[in-house]
Amino acid sequence: MKPFIADLHIHSRFSRAVSKDMVPENLYRWAQLKGISVLGTGDFTHPGWCLELQEKIEPAEPGLYRLKPELAKKVDAEIPESCRGEVRFLLTSEISSIYKRYGRTRKVHNMIYASSFTEVSNLNDKLAQIGNIRSDGRPILGLDSEELLRIMLELSPQSLFVPAHAWTPHFSVFGANSGFDSLEECFGELTPHIKVIETGLSSDPPMNWRLSQLEGITLISNSDAHSPSKLGRECNVLNCDLSFEGIKQAFTNGFSPQFLGTIEFFPAEGKYYYDGHRNCQIRLTPEETRAHQGMCPECGKMVTVGVLHRTEALSDQPIGYRPEKGLPYWSLVPLVELLAEVRGAGVNTKGVQEAYHHMLARLGPELFILREIPLADIEENGGRLLALSVQLLREGHARIDPGYDGEFGRVRMLSPEDRD
């Protein structure tokens, strides 16, 4: 077996606020450019997307799919030789549950991973009886999370259920605004079936390790990409059988050699790391929020309590605690952001984009460049400052203005002295 990378939470063009470029051909292309071997399809609950998937992908290894050869051939012609690789799709979907529990409105997003279109059809038929699954790729259902899990276990017990971006304030199992204080509060008697949670962009393994209730729960990371270029910004490194069951077992037995660890954002770059009030451009640490009694010091409205504050509130272990079976993780910054900083230009400018694709053509997929390629090769092809940026990145020396209340944080690798 050879280690491979899997990103299993994305969205299709049928979801709100998602690029129209999120179609199978572009997903296949960008997975290769990033170095991703297994990619979630996202949105299998949407009838239009489900139909498009059935038209464009075909069975490969058990429980996985590939882009049909006639479509793949056209895309492969545009992929640099250095980045070409096999890409498999795994059927995934995120469901938004909004419901009353214990006297409060709860808003929780959950992922389901399925191994066949037959399972998908069974689930979709049932969910269509409960609510509208046609209006959005991520359907909003008035369905308790525990009941959603029960439906999956009854109709598709071989599927995998994963609470999504578990700490996001507004839509997650532990969210400060509408979540719960424990998995048991959310999933009741079915809690033993929760083996895996997705940590989200604004938290990383060390933040989750501080909760004893999560010992024995596998922590995974995915991009939640809304456009093709965002694939792989968080993902999983696996060394298991290339099949649905192989991946499921690697996650549910997540402390085995089959799961090597996660690739992460620096959590402070996530858009809900600190507390704050975006309208007033107020960013607060948890201590500052408590000092202001949860109010924005500018306008007096309640601030959005971020992930750092929330994990601290629920934690019962000290900062720096690492469980015996805590898996490795690697914190990265997208290559295009490093190039933009080096050049002092925007990530979407022509020069930065040309430099990005030049690096891929010369050195290989993005995640390989960021994690493995020798610094001398990076310097030769991208310049000394880029090589220094990657070196600092690998050493964990990012400087970050933390994100808050829906605003992504700003990461900088280089100091004025570095440029001199």
UniProtKB/TrEMBL annotation:
Keywords: Endonuclease, Hydrolase, Nuclease
One term of GO molecular function: endonuclease activity
SUPFAM superfamilies with a match to the protein in the record: PHP domain-like
Keyword Ion transport attached: no
InterPro entries associated with the record: Pol/histidinol_Pase-like
Domain of life of the organism encoding this protein: Bacteria
Keyword Nuclease included in the entry's annotation: yes
Entries under PANTHER family matching the protein: PHOSPHOHYDROLASE, PHP FAMILY, PHOSPHOTRANSFERASE
Identification of the protein by name: Endonuclease Q family protein
